Amino acid sequence: MIQATRTPEIERVAREVEELVVNLERVIIGKRPAVDLAVSALLAGGHVLVQDVPGVGKTMLARALARSIGGSYKRIQATPDLLPGDITGGMVYDAGRGALRLVPGPIFANVVLADELNRTTPRTQSAFLEAMDEGQVSIEGIAYPLPKPFYLIATLNPTEHHGTYPLPEGQLDRFLISASLGYPTVEHEVEVVARQQQAHPIDSLQVVTELSRVLDWQVQARRVHVDRSLVAYAVQLAVATRTHSEAALGASPRASLGMVRLAQAWAVCRGRDFVLPDDMKLLAPAVLTHRIIPRSRIPANVIIDEILNRTAVPVLTA
Question: What is the DSSP letter of 57?
Answer without folding.
Answer: S
